[in-house]
Amino acid sequence: MGPPGAGKTTVGRIVGQKLDCPVIDIDDDVLETTWNMSVSEKLQDVGNEQFLEEEGKALLKFSASGSVISLTGSNPMHTAGMQHVKRNGIVVYLDVPTVVIMSRLKSMKVDRIVGQGPATSLKDILQFRKQFYKRWYDIRVLCGGNMAAEIVAEKVLDAVKRYQNSEVETYVSTRSTQKNSHKYFSDVVVEGLASDGGLFVPERGLPEFTAEEWQTLIEATYAERSQVILERCIHPADIPASKLREIIGTAYGENFTCSKIAPVRHLTGNQFLLELFHGPTASFKDFALQMMPHIFAYCIPRSCNYLVLVATSGDTGSAVLDGFSRLHGADKQRIAVLSFFPEDGVSPIQKSQMIGCQKENAWSVGVKSDFDFCQTAMKKIFTNSDYTGYLTVEYGTALAAANSINWARLLPQIVYHASAYLDLVHQGIIAFGDPVDVCIPTGNFGNILAALYAKMMGIPIRKCICASNENNVLTDFIRTGIYDLRGRKLVPTFSPAIDILKSSNLERYLHLIADGDGQLVTQLYDQLENQGHFQLRKDLLEKLQQDLVAGWCSEEDCLAAIHSVYSTTGYILDTHTAVAKVVADRLQDRTCPIIISSTAHYSKFAPAILRALRITEIKQNPLSQLHLLSSYSPLPPVHWGLLETLKKNENEGHRVCAADLNMLMSCIETLIQKHFMKVF
Predict the structure, then answer these.
(1) Which three-class secondary structure state does DSSP give residue 418?
(2) What CATH number does the domain containing 95 carry?
(3) Any alpha helices (H) in 532-574, and if so which ranges?
(4) What are the GO BP annotations of this UniProt entry (predicted)?
(5) Which of 301, 318, 435, 522 could pair with 281 as two cysteines, CB 3.0-4.6 Å apart?
């Protein structure tokens, strides 16, 4: 299936030869024999609308097995006909860029196609038809402009083989030492953390796109890029393409304030900002957490209730609460979420936002400790089989994780790093293949890991620059290979989302550069847990330093960067982006563009921003702080979603819990009783 000029007939014949099975061309072998006239004569005889109906009826009467069938370009526009086809076969979509199709049709001297009215351009009708192709396919094959039919046929066969064999795409724990301990995508989404304490990763790595395949996405929207990339990362047996499209459409719709979803903005010189704060809760966490709840709801068994636990250093809390509260109907009844955050370790606006995002199935609990305690407590709860088993037996409720330890949190983040590069190509800043560096404010290593995964999948990222604040354990590690927590205490900073010492997702990266050596990863993390430090082998450090460089930023330099950028450009950086800006200035060599991840909207950190801008009148009320910022007509404007949340929920309260594991477990049980058992 595909548009006119996609090569369906030629590719179909090659596939048929390779499979040694009959090839049927609907145009030549069905329509013309049924009508006793050519397709063009029939179209001229009955007109566009009647032609589509007659064509659909012919398809409904047609049946075949063990064959390769080349549909017409307009077959997918007839619903009943395509339902008939889809029930009886695997539908493969040859996805060829519109500009390539137009060039091919011009060379074939075709200037009109079925459904094209006198006032409609060829480009417009081709774009219009895409919605029908996207509705019906089981498998998409990306076809670049100069791709030979033989290569396309091989890609079709590979894609069909993948479609028919879900067992090849399995996941293992980073600490697994057993060859047969793999899981499927649905399993890892539901389980979150492996039973041995490790994190799930794809057993065979991530798929790699060719340069030609990436280039087919240059003109695509963010949602289209997301669809194509995630289809290759999630097996259709876990989530079919049609369901994935529905999830993506829901995730990246009107809840984002910018139609480009993740726009790239020129800052200064060779520096560009990837704006990741246009989601409903104003941080990059929205990209995963507007999507993950729907993936989770699709993957979980219907026989059990689920309580999703998350530990947050700031932005994750409101994002996960907002995302899961957007579920509907039965999903909202059987899935609840509980966010633990350091009571005194987030910004006042972040806390107000988390409290304001509480809904009937979404709650926040402040913990009298730091983020590392919250995260470690979550891991201990998940690996306590007696406790999790008790919750399942007593309340019919299982626990799940929504932190970036969950694989479904990481996957959507790969998309925006790829999309940023494609946007620079689209804007004419670079040609595809030119390198870029990326600089990312980093605490838990998830965002920068997603950039490294995008690089593995074929995006020409040269270096990933890890930017730390004064909690610079990652900077030291990347420079020396020594991860050392001995004597370190967490320092509260203006950039609380990266106030982290134990970086969870680093484990996935170490597993990657160690070529999947689960035994080594286990040894390293046992040593970290028991002795407070570990050291990488020299060969692994050399591998790491081929991908990563690192630097850190003081509190003074962070505020100075915010002031400097605002003074020269009128643009306000948030505190985390300012950390990345300072490190990028120090470490970039200016031989290629650098994309700085702007991970949150400055509105979330109003006191620090007001201080950086040297505004002395700083009120304690978060809402008053935002109104004060707004009065300066800043660029970008104050985040409307954040304003609305604070306006609606100024007087709401939340639970506060002592830094005690048993207290957290008791809190979990109480909320399970309240939501699932309706005990008040």
Answers:
(1) helix
(2) 3.40.50.300
(3) 538-547, 555-569
(4) amino acid biosynthetic process
(5) 318
Domain assignment of residue 56, yes or no? yes
652 pLDDT band (50/70/90 cuts)? confident
Output the six-digit token pair for 548.
């990563």
448's tokens: 């920068």
Torsion sign across C-alpha atoms 205, 157, 101, 253? negative
Read off the pLDDT of residues 535-560 as tens digits, 9 standing for 90 and up. Answer: 999 999 999 999 999 999 999 999 99
> How many domains in the chain?
1
pLDDT > 60? residue 679 = no
**CA 560 → CA 298, 574, 613, distances in Å?**
46, 12, 9
Please name which of 40, 43, 41, 44 lies closest in space to residue 53, comparing C-alpha atoms.
43
CA-CA-CA-CA torsion sign (619, 624, 625, 628): negative
Q: Taking residues 507-522, report their average pLDDT.
A: 97
Looking at the predicted structure, is the pLDDT value of residue 678 above 60? yes
The tokens describing 98, both together, are 């519109």
Domain encompassing residue 132:
8-164
Query: Is residue 191, in this structure, part of any structural domain at all?
Result: no
Mean pLDDT of all residues in 171-193: 88
Distance CA 405, CA 508 (A): 9
Does residue 439 belong to any structural domain of this protein? Answer: no
pLDDT at 680: 42
Task: Using the structure block, give the residue that is written with the tokens 């990326």.
Answer: 438
Q: Determine the residue type at 31.
A: L
- DSSP-derived secondary structure letter, 636: S
Enclosing H/E stretch for 623: helix 622-630
**Six-digit token string for 237:** 């047996």
The upper half-sphere exposure of residue 156, i.e. CA atoms within 13 Å in the direction of its Cβ, equals 31
Alpha helices in 220-279 (DSSP H): 222-233, 241-251
Between vectors from CA 338 to CA 383 and to CA 649, what angle results, nearest 5°? 165
Backbone angles phi, psi at 477, to 5 degrees: -65, -45
| 3 state SS for 323-388 | HHHCCCHHHHHHEEEEEEEECCCCCHHHHHHHHHCCECCEEEEEECCCHHHHHHHHHHHHCCHHHH
Bridge partners for 595 per DSSP? 272, 438
Q: Do 587 and 613 meet the contact criterion of CB atoms below 8 Å apart? A: no
The rounded distance, in Å, linking the Cα atoms of 503 and 442 is: 9
3-state secondary structure of 673: helix
Specify if 37 maps to a domain. Answer: yes
Going by C-alpha positions, the residue among 543, 540, 549 that lies closest to residue 463 is 549
Q: Are 349 and 626 in contact (CB under 8 A)?
A: yes
Comparing CA positions, the residue from 618, 525, 638 lying closest to residue 175 is 525
Give the span between the Cα atoms of 534 and 477, in whole angstroms: 10
CA–CA distance, 498 with 587 (Å, rounded to integer): 19
Rounded Cα gap, residues 460 and 580, in angstroms: 20
Q: Coil, helix or strand for 426?
A: helix
Q: What's the CA gap between 401 and 122, in Å, rounded?
A: 48
**Residue 399: enclosing H or E segment and its boundaries?**
strand 397-401
Task: Give the bridge partners for 548, in sequence order.
Answer: 464
pLDDT at 551: 98
Dihedral sign for Cα 350, 355, 359, 365, please.
positive
Cα distance between residue 117 and residue 135, in whole Å: 23
Cβ neighbours, 10 Å, residue 663: 15
| Mean pLDDT for the stretch of residues 506-521 | 97
Q: In whole angstroms, how large is the CA radius of gyration of the chain? A: 27
**Measured distance between the N- and C-terminal CA atoms of the chain, rounded to whole angstroms:** 56
